[in-house]
């Protein structure tokens, strides 16, 4: 899921936050639901609603406020403590905000299907696509083929964290392929050490970190096109295209001595602090997969965060083949609830490459490859941006966030918990998830 889940929903806490991107400033309009241009002077006050975490929100507000002052528009900022619930309530009550930042593409497309959102015009989409990481436009495209959301920021999930001094002292090398990662895992075990910290405890949302593991592996084993079919329900969890991802994860999670505390400890270890054993002496583990939000306060120890560039050495989660570089991300998509000219101007700015300066200084990643990575506050984040995110051969948004809620925030969480706890085998786990998927795949 997205990193705001570090607060309640997920990402994506830092989820790695991000810079915003979007249309050129000359593109001041947008399109209505039937594609015609909006006209008129526009509203003087525009409400934008979001669920951004405390690390992302200040920079976002600063960037938008500066734009609003230049355009003589007042922006009302509304933060949702529970985005999914609050935005549905607002829409059902006929009191939707003007602009919303959706962490879940699936919910956004649900509302688009109900004709509650205004799509981006083709010119803006074409402009943004020139600089967006491949796959981000598709993430905001709904079943009717129209683009309803483009990202304000993204979080990078395809990251393996290590303790830099310990990893180097042991002579370990960054794996280039998934086979290399298994070889490294076995070597660390053979050296009498524990290879992995894996953590999936998140209160009522326990299990969601496993979805990030599986999504990253599906993207690698099945490829981007099959990943999309899987998210839509067109490929089953227990299909020959998707099951290999689970089988690979099983080799690590169930490997004898591979996980700190053993397999059953995974669901009892907190997802934010579960990697802190990397930094003990001797290290409690040598590898930890988690999105970049873990390098913010509340994740790694403060002493590590203050010296991030020397204490950590994040690695790209390897591809199936060395020449490939798929990247899994979370993020927030800017969408408009009406076709007022100023609403569309604000939405388009939020999604534009001109947005995001202050967000970058606070550690947020832009979805645009043209972003100035030097604005990011440390070399660790700069390297993740330039060498992982902006070199992606294909990027995909968190799949569970786009699946029907009863799966993506339901059985995709709960069934793996039963599997990891020893209550059922893999086939039962996958078949149970498949049985819960709505027959329409919607």
From TrEMBL:
Pfam families: SBP_bac_1. InterPro entries: Bact_solute-bd_prot1, SBP. Belongs to the bacterial solute-binding protein 1 family. This is ABC transporter substrate-binding protein. Residues 1-20 form the signal peptide. Keywords: Signal, Transport. It comes from Terrabacter carboxydivorans. PANTHER family: ARABINOSE-BINDING PROTEIN-RELATED (PTHR43649), OSMOPROTECTIVE COMPOUNDS-BINDING PROTEIN GGTB (PTHR43649:SF29). Gene3D superfamilies: Periplasmic binding protein-like II. It comes from the Bacteria.
């Amino acid at each position: 899921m997205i990193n705001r889940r570090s607060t309640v929903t997920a990402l994506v806490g830092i989820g790695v936050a991000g810079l915003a991107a979007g249309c050129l400033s000359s593109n001041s309009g947008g399109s209505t639901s039937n594609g015609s241009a909006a006209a008129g002077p526009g509203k003087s006050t525009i409400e934008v609603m979001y669920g951004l975490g405390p690390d992302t929100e200040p920079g976002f507000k600063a960037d938008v406020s500066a734009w609003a002052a230049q355009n003589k528009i007042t922006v009302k900022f509304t933060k949702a403590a529970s985005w999914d619930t609050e935005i549905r309530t607002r829409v059902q009550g006929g009191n939707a905000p003007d602009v919303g930042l959706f962490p879940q593409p699936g919910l956004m497309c649900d509302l688009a299907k109900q004709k509650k959102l205004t799509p981006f015009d083709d010119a803006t989409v074409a402009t943004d696509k020139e600089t967006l990481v491949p796959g981000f436009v598709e993430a905001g495209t709904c079943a009717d083929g129209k683009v309803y959301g483009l990202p304000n920021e993204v979080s990078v999930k395809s990251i393996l964290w290590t303790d830099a001094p310990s990893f180097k002292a042991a002579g370990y090398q960054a794996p280039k392929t998934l086979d290399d990662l298994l070889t490294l895992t076995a070597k660390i075990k053979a050296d009498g050490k524990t290879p992995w910290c894996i953590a999936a405890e998140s209160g009522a949302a326990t299990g969601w970190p496993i979805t990030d593991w599986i999504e990253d592996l599906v993207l690698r084993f099945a490829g981007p096109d099959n990943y999309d079919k899987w998210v839509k329900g067109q490929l089953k969890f227990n299909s020959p295209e998707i099951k290999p991802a689970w089988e690979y994860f099983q080799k690590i999670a169930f490997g004898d001595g591979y996980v700190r505390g053993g397999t059953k400890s995974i669901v009892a270890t907190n997802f934010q602090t579960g990697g802190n054993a990397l930094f003990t002496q001797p290290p409690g583990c040598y590898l930890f997969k988690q999105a970049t939000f873990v390098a913010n306060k509340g994740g790694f120890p403060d002493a590590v965060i203050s010296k991030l560039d020397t204490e950590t050495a994040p690695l790209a989660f390897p591809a199936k083949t060395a020449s490939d570089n798929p990247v899994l991300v979370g993020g927030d998509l800017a969408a408009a609830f009406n076709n007022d000219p100023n609403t569309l101007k604000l939405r388009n700015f939020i999604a534009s490459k001109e947005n995001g300066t202050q967000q970058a200084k606070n550690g947020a990643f832009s979805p645009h490859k043209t972003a100035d990575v030097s604005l990011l506050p440390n070399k660790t984040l700069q390297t993740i941006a330039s060498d992982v995110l902006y070199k992606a051969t294909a990027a995909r948004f968190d799949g569970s966030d786009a699946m029907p809620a009863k799966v993506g925030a339901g059985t995709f969480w709960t069934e793996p918990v039963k599997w990891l706890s020893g209550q059922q085998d893999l086939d039962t786990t996958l078949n149970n998830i498949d049985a819960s998927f709505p027959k329409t795949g919607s």
